[in-house]
Specification:
CATH topology of the largest domain: MetI-like fold
CATH superfamily of the largest domain: MetI-like
Order of helices and strands: HHHHHHHHHHHHHH
Mean pLDDT: 80
Low-confidence stretches: 1-12, 291-296
Distance between the termini: 49 Å
Largest sheet: none
Structural class: mainly alpha
Radius of gyration: 25 Å
Number of helices: 14
Strand content: under 5%
């Protein structure tokens, strides 16, 4: 009898696995279409990598030679030494990491206040925060520039970091609020009965459960600051304060038709974003989906 039960337990998972493996022609067609779209989307990235390894003067040859002959790895060294890319990467990494950290911390605090606390004027204030999402950045560019000039912080990294420590953005606050509203309020009540304060409930009870939403905000913020071009162009003047995006724009003029050098810098700049999304896509998608469901 025990052998029969054990055999049945082994059979059930096998049957479930087989049912998952069996696919219909519609599934095969859908997967084929998605695979084709993925390949098409990767073509620019492949061309960028291929061009970055070509010798000067052969970048635009037709038909395209996807595997360069010869492969010139030294293009990456030459491209990054013709301008001060050591400073550029240092500045970009500093801005991106500090801004991402600030956005994650402050947006989660604001989202907790709007989603879990009760205070007078909460709904109108949250509506005012959402209304700022309708303003294009170009509208507030001049007033913001005047504020930083008055404070004497132009040509420093401060204007690119401090705003992220003031809530990050309205979208991040909205994302955190929606996610926290989906968490059971019994957690807060149980913690208060044990004598926990509001800050302790936030740091030790609510925040550890918000991993997917925090990961989504971190990815959004990382990509936005890593690739930001307009703000560094407006606020930074000295060469040692510039970012990689500004250096890439300067490199296009400095290298003239040397597209292999330009593509080498572009590929190096793109690689961290691709790697980040590849390793964190599960948390990213989960955070966005759960935040959307929480508002229902």
């Amino acid at each position: 009898m025990s052998l029969g039960i054990a055999e049945a337990k082994r059979t059930v998972p096998l049957e479930r696995l087989r049912s998952r493996i069996v696919t219909t022609p519609g599934h095969l067609i859908l997967h084929g279409v998605l695979l084709a779209i993925s390949v098409i989307a990767l073509i620019p990235m492949i061309w960028m990598l291929s061009t970055s390894l070509k010798t000067s003067g052969t970048e635009l040859e037709w038909p395209i030679q996807w595997v360069p002959q010869p492969i010139v790895w030294s293009n990456y060294i030459h491209a990054h030494t013709m301008l001060a890319f050591g400073y550029y990467y240092r500045n970009t990494i500093t801005i991106t990491l500090l801004s991402t950290l600030g956005a994650v911390i402050t947006s989660s605090m604001a989202g907790y206040a709007f989603g879990r606390l009760r205070f007078i004027g909460r709904t109108p204030l949250f509506g005012l925060v959402l209304a700022t999402m309708m303003l294009p950045n170009i509208v507030t560019l001049i007033p913001t520039y005047l504020i930083w000039r008055y404070l004497g912080w132009l040509d420093t990294l401060v204007p690119l970091i401090v705003p992220s420590w003031l809530g990050g953005s309205a979208f991040y606050i909205f994302l955190m609020r929606q996610f926290m509203m989906g968490l059971p309020r019994e957690l807060d009540e149980a913690a208060r009965m044990d004598g926990a304060s509001t800050y302790r409930i936030f740091w030790q009870v609510v925040l550890p459960l918000c991993g997917p939403a925090l990961a989504a905000i971190a990815i959004f913020s990382f990509v936005a600051h890593w690739t930001d071009f307009l703000a560094p162009l407006i606020y930074l003047n000295s060469d040692h304060n510039r970012t990689v995006a500004i250096g890439l724009a300067l490199g296009v003029g400095a290298y003239h038709t040397s597209y292999n050098y330009v593509m080498a810098i572009s590929f190096t700049m793109t690689l961290p974003i691709v790697a980040l999304f590849f390793f964190a896509q599960r948390y990213f998608m989960k955070g966005v989906v759960l935040s959307g469901l929480a508002g229902r």
